[in-house]
Amino acid sequence: MPALPRTTRRLPRAVGPAALAALLTMGLTLTPAAASSAANPEAKRPKPTIVLEHGAFADASGWNDVIHTLQRRGYTVYAPANPLRSLTGDTEYLKSFLATLSGPVVLVGHSYGGAVITGAATGNPAVKALVYIAAYAPEQGESVGQATALGGGSTELLQHIVARPFPGAATGDADASIDPAYFRQLFAQDLPAAQAAQMAAAQRPAAFATLAQPAGAPGWKTIPSWYLVARDDHTIPPAAERAMAKRAGARTVEINSSHAAMVSHPRAVSDLILNAATS
Questions:
Q1: Angle between helices 193-202 and 180-187 (to 10 degrees)
Q2: How far apart are CA 120 and CA 116, in angstroms?
């Protein structure tokens, strides 16, 4: 066999004898970068944009630790504000936000935000995965209030709501927030008391209308879904979370967490989102 020209570059060890013979026959060389790309098809796929939707009684800052992790992994992340005025209006708002993005998208929702991503994803081919973090995943025609009763669980949330009027509210509607005295007990019992008190002071109220409006066609019927069940949730009964996850055919994990899982267990939440983003 004739000696190789001195200009030929050394081949990576990952290239086997058969591949080496083929390359020599064609007079080609394989660079380390090309070998890495061939061995890892995922490297060629564009990273999806990750959109995080908060729910009621919270704001986008609850995602801060999760955002930090995802950004360090090279993902573009957005956490738009949820208007919290009506399921229909909040869904349309998120749809309009998604229309400004290009490329694949992973939608993540916490609590009521899950109901919003469920509708906003429908009919959008860019949405490749839905991730529910202790969240609502309603069926068509089902309200958030009705979904809370799935699985036979219960919550004391409505017994500790403070209602305040807001401009333009329909008759009988009002802004609902959790009484700060019960916020930690209901929403974030596994967080330090001082942190829970800060969250209670900064909570975003939601109109009562968000609880009663029927949901539209759900995106989870056609889009792969992931679900994190918070076993110690005192806002959405864990039984209801399990029922919604099962109905959606979601890949499900359970952790010992309060309702505020993205704050108290950001690593577990980030891991689930990354699982969806790379699947």
A1: 120
A2: 6
DSSP type of residue 4: P
For 171, residues 6+ apart whose C-beta sits below 8 A from its C-beta are: none
Question: Coil, strand or helix: which one is 213?
Answer: coil
Residue 59's nearest CA partner among 70, 67, 71, 69 is 67
- Residue 14's nearest CA partner among 40, 48, 53 is 40
HSE toward the beta carbon, residue 181, CA cutoff 13 A: 4
Going across the sheet that includes 175-178, the strands are 161-164, 175-178, 206-207
Helices (H) and strands (E) in the chain, counts: 12, 9
- CA dist 222 and 128 (Å) reads 10
pLDDT in tens, 105-160: 999 999 999 999 999 999 999 999 999 999 999 999 999 999 999 999 999 999 99
**What are the tens digits of pLDDT across the range 178-191?**
999 999 999 999 99
- H or E element at residue 107: strand 105-111
DSSP of 110-164:
EEHHHHHHHHHTTT-TTEEEEEEEEE--PPTT--HHHHHTGGG----GGGGEEEE
- Sequence-distant (6+) residues with CB within 8 A of 5 are none
* Coil vs helix vs strand at 194: helix
Q: What pTM was estimated for this model as a whole?
A: 0.85
- Torsion (CA) 177, 81, 199, 150 in degrees, nearest 10: 60
Listing from the earlier edge strand, what are the strands of the sheet with 225-230? 77-78, 49-53, 105-111, 127-135, 225-230, 251-255
Percent of the chain with pLDDT over 90: 83
Whole-angstrom distance between the N-terminal and C-terminal Cα of the chain?
Answer: 45
